[in-house]
Structures are given as structure tokens and as C-alpha cells.
């Protein structure tokens, strides 16, 4: 464990910020932190360069309408970015969404209206904008917005065909194509409906596998590979949805851990004839259709199939004309294999792919026969993602955290003559990247704790070509009235029980006084595939706690992402156990800090973080005086197959692993005041999880606080989110401040 920070470091953490900022700032109110104008400033979201690299499209919040996104475009050669489509003009078409359309939005975590999705055509002239029952096409040169004529009904997963002459979408659980010139629409499938769907990713693919689509165009416009899903074998789980107007019982096809999955088949449909050919790959209910990609020439379909226990991932090459499949390679793991979007077919017929063969995720090059030709990157650090490929120069661009896990940069390396990667970006912070199909430029978004997210267009040498959204923190920025209290996180490391390094961040109260002791709150997530400790622009809601005199602490426990295989798989078979130990080690470290009052430490978290809050507060000898647990799984038998079985196996095979982290079985050990929070229409962590904890607490006579949101989904928005944060502040003020 690292030693206590030197007294001078603590004073520096609370000292005045950089020169040029106001000497004093206002205290942040909830309505300002979560309002119509984001204090993060004018951020560019959903950035997509045009295929030719000449234009950059992006979404930006409409400052006059809370929760509405507009579509903007910037020219690569310069000039002022311009508003292409105002999201408010599309608002009428959001009037109603079918179950499939609504659920897909939930799975994609789309929380805005207006322009929420869009797509370039291959000629870089038009943009496609689906919006509820309407489909819009906008010509970038003329800025003319036209509605595609149709006979009504929701359109799910709308796309241009690669040639730009057709549209494709799912409606009524069948796959359709529309000829743009004539507006003629015809179905490619007809047996969809009820429990059967075509072209829709099943629940676990959308929620856990990060795959939101269920169909894939071939590059030559000839075929569409589409999955057929039959959910008739999946349990119908009754779920009570309670809103302000009343309650209703919804029967949801939900594959709980150990129970049957949907049955999946993959077919290749000839678009002209609508004739399907089934891919000769057994998926059914015992495997997952993980990823699907076309070869560059459209003559081969690459299919990734994952075993249900997720310890085997296979890559097949499928002939689209016959459906014949051959196994190219198979990856195995003693724990699980993480899926990625890094499969990159090459014109040669081979491909690049990231795999975790040497203990970290690295880039490998394969021939068309699936044989490994070279390991392109190596070292005791993981590749985050393949960002772009320049085949003419035989260079791959990738993001990684080579120097430290809390920063991310862009690198390039030859994939035919592997050497030391070249770093292309600068700054001690966190980058995100989007490459154009023509790999001469990329869009990069950078932030650090003192720099709000700024987006620019860069050459592949790393040179800034133009700003898209500079988001300068000056007198015109919405954060400026509060900038004097801009947090200055301290980053450090601790050692886990097995010797692995854990990273933490520590933020001091806005009006920090080194002579005082303060209450502290640990904000935790703790779940797999997530990293919370990053050197980036922080969540503005942190200020709500810091302004009110709390010290804020975060720690990435074992199992978190962006680390080695050994670090991520330390939780295998014991989800929640090692994570709890690491967070308790962080709490013990926090309690030794000279300005922390160890009798006034709280904990808070949402989703897996809510589960962690309950685990921590029921662990013997914990130091927490209070905790707020939101949307918390309380019994992993109630959660879905793909996520839960990856870490715990099935309940039939490992009942003891499930029992060890069943919150109700641990609830007798609860100490400290608990605030239990749940959305009453959550279809991810269903309401049953909160109800069983409430019932157990009432049965044993424990006084606690509970906060249920009528109509609230897994993520709360708008007024509900503002109310949630007022409740957080009230709860911790009562339990950590007034308790003194």
C-alpha cells in the first residue's frame, strides 16, 4: 500500500487553480449540473467522418431544448461548422416507438431525442437519419432534408446499402429493402413476428455483447447476411411496470442465468430474389453469434461463434452462394474470451485481429487460411482498439495505454514489418478516435481534468488540421462561473492482495482547508469491462459533492478493463468477492488520510456499483457509515445469461458462487444507513432485485431509506435525474454531516 500523501500535496490539491481563472467561483446547484445547457460545453458526439474524409458530421446538444441533439457538419479544409439538421424539427416523428425500436434505444443507451442516429452514404453526399416512424435523407451540398415516402410503421436499424441506391430496415420483425429512386418497398423475409425476428440482434447481443445490429450488407450490394432469432424457448418473465399513470404487467422474453437462450440461425439473402441460403454453422441455443464481417471483395463472410461458456471463440469463412463454412481458427481460454470490434479484413484476403494470446490484448496478422503470420504488437500493456488501417502503406493505427492505464494515446505500426509503435498524440490525458475510411485523417477528442473534451481533425502524423469543437474553457464557456473550483484529482496506486496494482483518484472539497477533517465518499462501479479512474474531464456531478464539503475517492479494482488478462480474470468464478476486497483496501487507505474523518465514510454506486455498495455494507468490519445503492442486482440468478455465466458459470453448476453474492443472504450483516434506489420500469436490473432486498430489511426490522422512480428505466433522465441528485445530497448530509 502506498504511503500517506505528504501534507504539502494535500494543500496543493486544494490550492487555487491555474492563472487566468477567477479567484472565486459559485457553488454548483443541481439544476445547473443537470440542465438544458451542459456545463461540459459544446461537445461533439457521435462523430463520423465522411468516407472520402472531406467532411465530418457530429451531434451536438441543442442549448434551447433539453435532451435534443442536432446534426452538424464541418469541412476538412476549414471554415465554420454549420448546422445541417435541427433535431427539434424531427421531434414529431418520435411520437411512438415499437417495442423493438424502444428496446434497441435502451440497449444503445440513447438518452436524447432529435437526431440520435445517422449514416453517410458511400459517395459522401448524403446522410440518412432515422427518426421513429420516419426516414429522412439530407443532401449535404444543398442542405435539403427530404422524408422518404413509406406506408408507415417503425423502422429499426435503418441503413443505406453500400451502393447508396437502397435502404434497409426491420419492421414488424421482418427485414425490408426500399429502392430510393422509386420508393418501392418489399420484404426480404416474411415469417417474422411474435417470438421470431429477422435482422434484429437478440437481447443479450445488444445488452452484453455490444452488437446492436442483426444484419450485414455485402460490399457489392448483392447479399444481406441476416440472423433469424426464435425466442419461443426463452422464459416469459412477468415484469410489473409502474408509472405515474398506473401499473401494467409486461411479459418479457428474458434469458436468465442458467435458462434457455434464444435460438439463432444465420442466412445469406440474395437481395434481388429474396432467396435465403443458410450458413452451415450450428448456433442454436448453445452458442452465440458474436460478430459478422464481409471480406473486402464480398466473396467470403467471416463469422465469429462463441461457446455458451465463453471459453471458446471460433472464426468461420462462409461461402455466401452455398452457405458452406470452414473453420479458420479457434481461440480458447481457461476463463473467458472477450469480444471486440477489431476484426479487420484486408484486400489480400487475410485479416488483422486483436487477441489475448500472450496475457494482454495485442494485434495479430493472419493469412486468408487463418494461419498466424505475425504478432504485430507486444508488451506488458493492452491494445485498446484498432482505430484504422492504411493498406497502401501497410500501417495499422491503434489506441492504447502504454505508459499508464489512466491515459490513452494513438499509435501506428507496420503490420508487415512489426517494430516499436510510434506515438502520434500528445497530452497527459485521454483520447478517443474516429478514422475516415480514407485513412489520411482522423477525428480525435481529447480531455484531461483541466481541459473539457475538445474535438479536432488530425493528419495521421498527429498534426492538427482544424478544430471541430475546440470547447475552450474561457469566459464564454458555461463552466466558467464555477471554474475557480475546478477539481484537481490526485492519482495514485495501491496493491491488491495478490500483488497487482490498483489505480485510484482522489478529489478534495472545493473549499479545502488543510486544518479540517472531512467526510469522504467512495464512488464505485467495480464491474468488469469498465474503467472509472482516467485522467480525463470529470463528471460535472462530482462538483455537487465537492462543493458541499466531501472528499471523493474512486478505485478500479481487479476485474476492471484496460488491464492484463490476469488482472481482469482475477474475479473468475467469484464475481463480487475480489472486487469487494479491493474496495475495502481502498477504504482502509482512505481512512488513514490526515484530512479524512474515518467515522464519516460513505459509499455510492449505480447498477454494478449499486451491487458493490450492498456487498461492501454487508461485509463484516466495513468502515461505511452510509451507502446509496441504485439499480442494484441483488441475486445474479435474476440477471441474463451472457454476462452472468461468463463470471459465475450457471446456477446449476456453481450454486455456491451465486449464494456467496446473494445480497439477501448477506443482509443480516448490514451496518450503516442504506438508501436503496430503483427505477420501476427497469428492464435490465428488474424491480424484483430491489423488492427482495426491501422485504428482507423490513422482515429483520432494519430502518432504511428507499427511493423508487415511477416509469424510471435503468438510466434516469431529466427531472428524475435531478431529483436523484437532490436525494443523494440530502441523504449524505443527514448521515455523514449531521451524524457528527
Automatic annotation (TrEMBL):
InterPro entries: AB_hydrolase_fold, Peptidase_S9_cat, Peptidase_S9B_N, Serine_Prot_S9B/DPPIV. One of its GO terms (molecular function) is serine-type peptidase activity. This is Peptidase S9B dipeptidylpeptidase IV domain protein. One of its GO terms (biological process) is proteolysis. Transmembrane segments: none annotated. Residues 544-738 form the Peptidase S9 prolyl oligopeptidase catalytic domain. It comes from uncultured Sphingopyxis sp. Residues 133-453 form the Dipeptidylpeptidase IV N-terminal domain.
